[in-house]
Design goal:
338 residues, mainly alpha
């Protein structure tokens, strides 16, 4: 049996090689009696982006073997040919979760807007894994239809991983229509969701978010406070109220990382009088990521007078701090000579 399978594998590979030279697919392997050979044939078609891969695979999508069906669907996704979308869509609601996952992934790889309704339905799946795959697939599909579904459905999902992914997509697309929902997410129970909301608002770049971000400076989670400070400096560097809020929070902040980021944000907003906080934490901050962050801040905002203290940091016990200090020194010296 094993020898027979190996011989059929070899035959499939030979057929595929010949098909690649002629620009055609290799249909024989897709109907082989051995499920493993059928799967391998489809996988090769997908990997080689066979021009007629869709025409070869689609007629056999309803293979009796589950693993083969999944591999056939996955191969269509790898092909990236929009002609496969109508054939894949029904499998997004298949009774078997493995098939649904494969279909959602394939639709995301192809990125055709016609898949949006099917993926929206998948966002209602009781299986969180499938909802996650559907949300990621929607994030790969351009256009307003996919974004509206993400905002309407996925952003309200009970899974914080799904909500966080949606906010990353929003940030990458700079979707200003999402700003009200992102501001609402700054009040979510999940620390991760609030942090991603602050990051997304910074990347979307709408100054109307300044009041919400000022409130986020008092968030109980330190990463939200860090990200809110940087978001304010990015969105409103000349805003007196934002700068005042950052400095006010710095006056009461006790977490080292947040103190660095608040002083850094104040500097980016034009007030470098608080860089002494950064210099102190470069040497004394705990744990090491605080010192590394301080080095990054001085590399951006510091000057030649900061090189000696950064050179002290080159002797830090932690490699991350030494690396960041070296980068900061190079940046300052580069700015001086340019």
């Amino acid at each position: 049996m094993l020898a027979s399978r190996k011989s059929r594998y070899a035959l499939v590979v030979t057929m595929l090689a010949a098909a690649a030279c002629s620009g055609r697919g290799a249909p024989g392997g897709l109907t082989d009696p051995d499920p493993a050979v059928r799967s391998q044939a489809a996988i090769h078609l997908g990997e080689r982006k066979a021009p007629d891969g869709v025409d070869q695979i689609v007629p056999h999508l309803n293979d009796p073997e589950l693993t083969v069906r999944i591999d056939f669907i996955s191969a269509l996704g790898a092909l990236g040919d929009p002609r496969a979308v109508p054939a894949i869509i029904p499998y997004a609601s298949d009774s078997l979760s493995g098939v649904r996952i494969a279909a959602c992934r394939a639709l995301g790889l192809i990125g055709d807007p016609r898949a949006v309704p099917a993926l929206e339905s998948a966002l209602q799946d009781p299986d969180e894994t499938i909802r996650t795959v559907a949300a990621k697939a929607l994030g790969n599909i351009p256009g307003p239809e996919s974004m509206q579904v993400l905002l309407r459905t996925a952003l309200a999902d009970e899974s914080e991983a799904i909500r966080s992914h949606v906010m990353k997509v929003i940030a990458e697309r700079h979707e200003k229509d999402a700003v009200p929902k992102l501001e609402s997410a700054l009040s979510a129970e999940s620390d991760l969701v609030r942090a991603n909301a602050a990051l997304a608002l910074a990347n979307v770049g709408d100054r109307s978010s300044v009041p919400a971000l000022i409130r986020a400076l008092d968030d109980p989670y330190y990463k939200v406070r860090c990200l809110a400070a940087h978001a304010l400096a990015k969105l409103a560097p000349g805003d007196a109220e934002a700068k005042q809020a950052i400095v006010k929070r710095l006056g009461v902040e006790t977490t080292g990382m947040v103190r660095v980021d608040l002083a850094w944000a104040a500097g980016k907003a034009g007030d470098v009088s608080h860089l002494g906080v950064v210099r102190t934490l470069l040497i004394e901050g705990q744990p090491e990521d605080v010192r590394a962050e301080a080095a990054l801040a001085l590399g951006q905002l510091g000057g030649p007078s900061d090189v000696p203290i950064l050179e002290r940091a080159l002797a830090d016990k932690k490699g991350l701090v030494r690396s960041r200090a070296a980068e900061a020194i190079d940046r300052i010296k580069g700015a001086k000579t340019s």
